UniProtKB/TrEMBL annotation, chains A, B, C, D, E, F, G, H, I, J, K, L:
This is DNA starvation/stationary phase protection protein. Signal peptide: none annotated. It comes from the Bacteria. Residues 18-153 form the Ferritin/DPS domain. It comes from Streptomyces similanensis. CDD domains: DPS. SUPFAM superfamilies: Ferritin-like (SSF47240). Belongs to the Dps family.
Amino acid sequence: MTVVKSTISDSARQITGDALQSTLVDLLGLSLIGKQAHWNIVGPRFRSIHLQLDEVVASAREFADTVAERAAALGVSPDGRPETIASAFTLPAPKEGWVRDSDVVGVMVESLEAAIARLRERIEATDKPDPVTQDLLISITAELEKQRWMFAAENVARES
Amino acid sequence: MTVVKSTISDSARQITGDALQSTLVDLLGLSLIGKQAHWNIVGPRFRSIHLQLDEVVASAREFADTVAERAAALGVSPDGRPETIASAFTLPAPKEGWVRDSDVVGVMVESLEAAIARLRERIEATDKPDPVTQDLLISITAELEKQRWMFAAENVARES
Amino acid sequence: MTVVKSTISDSARQITGDALQSTLVDLLGLSLIGKQAHWNIVGPRFRSIHLQLDEVVASAREFADTVAERAAALGVSPDGRPETIASAFTLPAPKEGWVRDSDVVGVMVESLEAAIARLRERIEATDKPDPVTQDLLISITAELEKQRWMFAAENVARES
Amino acid sequence: MTVVKSTISDSARQITGDALQSTLVDLLGLSLIGKQAHWNIVGPRFRSIHLQLDEVVASAREFADTVAERAAALGVSPDGRPETIASAFTLPAPKEGWVRDSDVVGVMVESLEAAIARLRERIEATDKPDPVTQDLLISITAELEKQRWMFAAENVARES
Amino acid sequence: MTVVKSTISDSARQITGDALQSTLVDLLGLSLIGKQAHWNIVGPRFRSIHLQLDEVVASAREFADTVAERAAALGVSPDGRPETIASAFTLPAPKEGWVRDSDVVGVMVESLEAAIARLRERIEATDKPDPVTQDLLISITAELEKQRWMFAAENVARES
Amino acid sequence: MTVVKSTISDSARQITGDALQSTLVDLLGLSLIGKQAHWNIVGPRFRSIHLQLDEVVASAREFADTVAERAAALGVSPDGRPETIASAFTLPAPKEGWVRDSDVVGVMVESLEAAIARLRERIEATDKPDPVTQDLLISITAELEKQRWMFAAENVARES
Amino acid sequence: MTVVKSTISDSARQITGDALQSTLVDLLGLSLIGKQAHWNIVGPRFRSIHLQLDEVVASAREFADTVAERAAALGVSPDGRPETIASAFTLPAPKEGWVRDSDVVGVMVESLEAAIARLRERIEATDKPDPVTQDLLISITAELEKQRWMFAAENVARES
Amino acid sequence: MTVVKSTISDSARQITGDALQSTLVDLLGLSLIGKQAHWNIVGPRFRSIHLQLDEVVASAREFADTVAERAAALGVSPDGRPETIASAFTLPAPKEGWVRDSDVVGVMVESLEAAIARLRERIEATDKPDPVTQDLLISITAELEKQRWMFAAENVARES
Amino acid sequence: MTVVKSTISDSARQITGDALQSTLVDLLGLSLIGKQAHWNIVGPRFRSIHLQLDEVVASAREFADTVAERAAALGVSPDGRPETIASAFTLPAPKEGWVRDSDVVGVMVESLEAAIARLRERIEATDKPDPVTQDLLISITAELEKQRWMFAAENVARES
Amino acid sequence: MTVVKSTISDSARQITGDALQSTLVDLLGLSLIGKQAHWNIVGPRFRSIHLQLDEVVASAREFADTVAERAAALGVSPDGRPETIASAFTLPAPKEGWVRDSDVVGVMVESLEAAIARLRERIEATDKPDPVTQDLLISITAELEKQRWMFAAENVARES
Amino acid sequence: MTVVKSTISDSARQITGDALQSTLVDLLGLSLIGKQAHWNIVGPRFRSIHLQLDEVVASAREFADTVAERAAALGVSPDGRPETIASAFTLPAPKEGWVRDSDVVGVMVESLEAAIARLRERIEATDKPDPVTQDLLISITAELEKQRWMFAAENVARES
Amino acid sequence: MTVVKSTISDSARQITGDALQSTLVDLLGLSLIGKQAHWNIVGPRFRSIHLQLDEVVASAREFADTVAERAAALGVSPDGRPETIASAFTLPAPKEGWVRDSDVVGVMVESLEAAIARLRERIEATDKPDPVTQDLLISITAELEKQRWMFAAENVARES
């Protein structure tokens, strides 16, 4: 059932729709693993990272909503059901149970870096098909790169 | 690694921990399918139900956070990772793709009713082991029963 | 016409529904007589009690709404029509016309005490049938007992 | 006991006091039946009308307070006790139990129209005795006519 | 220097200008004596009346500003200089030094009653010349009559 | 299609509807030319007048909404379409292109004066047919006269 | 009179200025027809669409302001006078008088689709001449496409 | 009637009380002449100075309240009655009627300079008797000197 | 002097009163030692724990107020005087002088654990005598257990 | 352990530290007895004084925090532990149990007067050693003297 | 020490890092000279331009923060130390001492024009290396061009 | 050009002006190096110190504004241009590039201590010439000493 017409061509919609759907999965996954870490972190930086993770979650949730509604606006039904996220989400994530603060910071840096690499590919892919979607992906990248820097800077002294 | 000591006995912690973990999965699942419906609903009641679903999602997210932190407070590591939700979430959910508004209302009534039935069992189970957790489960039930009524009342006229 | 299904058994619904309906009448009645006193009070404590009465009214209105929606959530149609309140409301109330401030305080103490006694019976009655409703009645009692204390403390010096 | 002197003549006070007292009853009655409908409405427009009714209730409560305090300001004791409303309120109201959404809209149109017709008579009656009270009645009429239009517009398509 | 043209006739401007100028003096005077009482009141109702007086002052200041700008809008230069208020203000006022709370209440009732009587004359006088100004005077009267009632109700029990 | 019944007689509705429709056009026109001046003004008073114009626009938009909804409330369909405004709007307006600040102030004084003169006629015309509408027109006039004064006072020194 | 110098070349300014001026007309037109529909809509979805239209109007007004000020910033005098809109606005619009809710939704979908198509051409045209303006047009397109989707989703069930 | 005891010696109270009483008169007078200028100013800087004067008035009113309550706190009854201000206020003030903007700025500079000179004397006088009052006078001086600078800077270009 | 009557039986009041009085002492004590640690903490986690302690203090103060007013509402005079707290407070507390951050975290975990153990006994004790008080004690326990978890999680890595 | 260096000389630190420590005890003590009175007051002025006491408590708490952090900033460890307050607090305080409103007012006047006398000595003592601390003590004195006046004014009529 | 890894290639990082560093210097410099002008401006437009300059400063500060954090996010250490700004800032700036209002406006136009020209070059330079940074530079340019227009429009009438 | 007259003598103005100008440089410098550290900090306390530095920057910016406007108010033109800060700022500052968290804390302690020592000299110097300026310098010292303590307490454990 194609109920909502698109304002762009079929081929543009194909590329843009794929970019948005995989971004949606990454963001919903990030919001879930961000909360998982928020609840299971232990260590002397507990409070500081506990609060920082909630900022990642808030950003991920808000962008997920914008991305899904952007897909709908282009006539592409977004899919954010539990089973879809579970099978399609491939970013690094914290393991089960309590997690030490330095490990949380480490896994967040890795997960955000992987998400950013995938976003930069989609920015390139959507340049011609839909500059409106590209602009949204650019905004998400800016935010995730800022979050990545803050975790990375936090982890510098670990080895010293 | 049992890093956070519990303030209740081991057996009480077992029962309470199970109740909280399964409630966490139900709430995270509800928040995901609520958003899925929020994005994919079509039909003359689009705007009205689209907004109502966001209230369900907001409640589910907030209660999920409280429930997970309650588990942690009792020394039980909460698990809200994508794969956990996907495998443990069993409530009725909207199918893939666009969904007609009356179908959305119908599935929300069913999903909330199933969640409520499970919560009422946990309220009974936690009465002795931990009245503090029981009180939290009572609050969640009150909110979900209110949401269920509003969807149910909305759907009455469907048959008429 | 039983349009909204209940999430509890028929017998539990009967007891809980009665408790909620009579609480609804008491609260709507309190909100009306609280306003009546708010408008008709005279005496040197006019401003102080005039403002305090509006807090009683605000609490009564907010709880009345929650109580009525709780009834609806259980599949029980709440009844707050003028004629219902007039015939079912039995708490002490201010007489017609202007009322002296000390008399207002006195009648509010009596009216709240009567309401509290009735609520305590309903708390006991709903313990088994529906702990969710019981929890709501407990919250209402806590608020009304606080209000009663403040009027009672205000009236102590009357005799001295 | 005439405890508060009036700033207008006895005859003016008589006419104005009657106009305010009957307006008070209409507004308190509207606030009660608005809530009754708010709780008992069922049908596909449930959420939309449920929210709209709360705006009617909020307006009715706020104006009732202003009207009663206006009466007091003129030395007329306002009467908003349950039994007074029950015996003096004559506007159309929803019947007992659950009410279909289209019926709710219909009865609100009728009730508001009746209230407006009565207000327009009082606007005329108070023109000479007290332009200050007349100005208040004009404000109330403006608000109720706006509410009436919105329910009426909502009901147009019922027959089509 | 008549620098701002009027939108009404010369004769209408004369009557309306006089009504506004004398209202301005009454309101500025009320704001000054309200503060005087606010600072000098003593007695067991100190806090209650101290706060109530600030509401009179706030109303008087806000209406004074509206009245003066209304005069300017009609091309009439408003005069609120200290010497003008001192010579033109004729309402009852608290005497020098500390004032007992019951005396404060008494003088506020008298002063507001005098202000109201003068406003009612101006409402009549401006009916034809400028209904826009009349509407403003009606609003001021409504507020001052409400304030008068509250002080009057506060003073009822003084003799009992 | 007369879909919304009126609460006033046909003849009253005719007069009142005409007054509201022409006021609507004046206000929508004012909001458009206010913005036009807001964007095109140049000169040393740029910032000061640029900000003042936005207050005119905000008032005009808000009153336009109230006026149109008042018409609808009386069963009169309001007409604010571009072509209607273009053909019916007759107040003085800024010319095309950049406009010097003193010229902007001048044209605003003229345009507001013309709007006020037309409103005063409608206040008189609606006195008997509908005092509720008359009261709204009085409020609009008060605001526009205040705006006119502020532009007029601003322009006084131009000649000196 | 070219009073404000441009920061881009003459040819770039020509293209960008044209894009901004025609976008301004579309947005001002949308804000007017959005309000027209807001006031004249009738039918069972009255309240829901009535509120949604105000969100379109708010977006259109805010973007119109940004677009006009962007033109001015480039030394191009923006033209938003009534006669300019009337003659240059070509998007589908609601007809005169009351409009059924489903027709309102239909015309909004069509009008937004036409506006979007025109915006996408301007995004392409301004890519080289002025990426700053292009970025603004991209933001407007994102918002209008979101609005279009919501109306389109609302209208799906019309045929079923 | 000396009803409120002082926390400082009689001689200290005498000096401090005089300083506070004369500061009170200066501030109340400034608030009145600030408003007088706010209403009567004309000229191309109307809006800019009209707004700035309201900041002077707001400061003067707030400090007047603090100063009067400080006097009361020291057992000195403050006197802010109209006749007291009229006879004791000696600062330069705008003349009757409309006042040109440059003249308003000029008189404000002079009036604030005179007020500051008097405050600096009182700062010295209260140094020993009451450092708490001195601290308050220092705060007032800081604010009035800031206001004076802004008017003075505004007037520099008058001669050029 | 038993000035405020109780709404529960004498024996119930005895048990409940004792539970509330000892809870009051624990909470006031916690608020004081929380501030003591807030001011005296030193070490690399200074800022993080300094802020967290203020959240403990805020919770303790707010619950202390509710607990004391609950006692008063039951006719039991609450006792929170300095000497009462000093003699009755028995929870672990920081020693005099500056305290290292890890020691602060350690003592807060111990002190909160002791407070929780005592609260859980009171929850059991008040179950029959007064479910309203029990509900309040449950809320306090939930909050203190959450605070305890956050300090405990923060301290995990100390040994590693 | 002297962990935080001071920015002033040792002797200055000794005097200033003593002044701050004893002020801290007075303020924490005032906050505790203020709450004690807030909960235990009875009599016709219950509500008025109950609210006023909370303002004293809020001021005392906020200043206690500033005073303790000022001590820490000077390298002096502040001591606000329960046993310290109990042994060092010497101001008049309400007796155990319910207290009549006039007695509450009386004891607050006495307690504040004693606190003020001690503060004035410390203002003198810190003049040379640390004008920054002196400035803080001056602010506290201003606030407490204002509070004292309000209680004193409230109690005037007690004897009459 | 390269402590934060980059998410883009070395060559891209070189170009983007240079663009961000020089933009940072321009914005910090603008914030300093904007404040310098804010404090030193004299003339009849003092208040109007004084306020406008604070908006430039607020924008410059906020964008400087975003630009510096963007550099850090790309692994480039931003340099905003006083000596760096002093040596690298090359935009036109106000001279030492008091500055006439028209001169302030003139220098702000020039300084903003120079900053814009430099930004437009960087927008082009970063197009390929990093579209995320380019998007940020576009936003800054939009804001500075708007500010430039407002100063330029303000200065038009200087020559006339 | 001495355009703004002073309210104090020439010699007093000389001393006070110097004190204000050097304080301005210190505060502007602190705001720049605070931001520099905010952006370049790395290590496990990144987030905690990153946030704390922004509080220093906010304080420094706000006080810098007050100090500069105080200078202007005394007729002294403040100088905050980049080159002035670069040449006159002498407080310790972070070196170029990324900086470890413990080094950031260390340099902030040193820099604030140096600033405080200089402020204490100026407090003494301005005592006679201008107590109003002295009061401002006292407020700044209080804030910087509080900031210094928090960094110093944070760094205590570094050696342990």
